[in-house]
Amino acid sequence: RATEINSKTHYYNSYMCEAKYQIKTGRTLEALATINKMTEEAQSENNKFGLFNGKMLLGHIYQARNNPATALDNYQEAIKLDNQMPGETLINAEVYANIANCHISLYNLDKALQNINKGLSLQRIRRSTKSHLKANECKCYFMTHQLDTFISKYNEFREFKEKYDPEYHTTEENNVEIYKAIYDKDYSKAIELNKKTASALDRADNMQI
Fold it and tell me: CB–CB of 45/12 below 8 Å?
């Protein structure tokens, strides 16, 4: 991806990788210190690439801390910074997936679907991200009681998963199966699946990115 490429790009990428690892391992305070240091340097150099990544990472931290409103604010600031940079956009499917996550948490389901569709429309998208977006698409239609669309999207999700991403086994997928069991009025199955989801969340330790 073309960005504001200069000698500092790899330098800020190393900051980003360090902060992501800290967030994924539940060390959000350490990640915040890393991000603050990166952001201070980027501000002193007016480096939009570093500032963009700082806002994205702050969004991840607030998602991990279950603060979707503040996470969403940071993702939107990242988009504004991206619009100020020359060349191809840095905004990718992962960004839209994260924004959709926040809107779902805030029950802004129409906005969630808008961002899911933006992510799914991109040509370059990781299979795991596509599975995540498709699972959350099912969730939005179920939550808005659009059950005919839900079952259609569910079938698309299962077909995609079985063909392209058989290793995708996450909380999002399990939630979709809970909704399908409720749709089928198989409430015993829904209860059992819900227990599995609760167990998975107990083990997650804030690893939401």
Answer: no
pTM: 0.83
CA distances from 130 to 93, 111, 116, 121 (A): 8, 18, 9, 10
How do residues 59-113 score in pLDDT, each as one tens digit?
Answer: 999 998 899 999 999 999 998 888 888 776 777 888 899 999 999 999 999 999 9
Whether the CB-CB separation of 178 and 197 falls below 8 Å is answered with yes
Residue 208, classed as helix, strand or coil, is: coil
Cα–Cα distances (Å) from 16 to 11, 20, 58, 67, 98, in that order, read: 9, 6, 11, 21, 16
State which amino acid sits at residue 176: V
Find the distance separating the first CA and the last CA of the chain, reported in whole Å: 21
Number of residues in the chain: 209
Report the distance separating Cα 115 and Cα 129, nearest Å: 13
| C-alpha dihedral, 158 to 60 to 51 to 116, nearest 10° | 30
Q: What's the CA gap between 180 and 117, in Å, rounded?
A: 21
Q: The tokens of 148 are what?
A: 């005919």
**Beta carbons within 8 Å of 10's beta carbon, 6+ residues apart:** none
Assigned token pair, 187: 């409430």
Averages of pLDDT over each 10 residues, the chain, 209 residues: 59 90 90 94 91 93 92 93 77 88 95 95 87 94 97 96 79 90 95 76 41
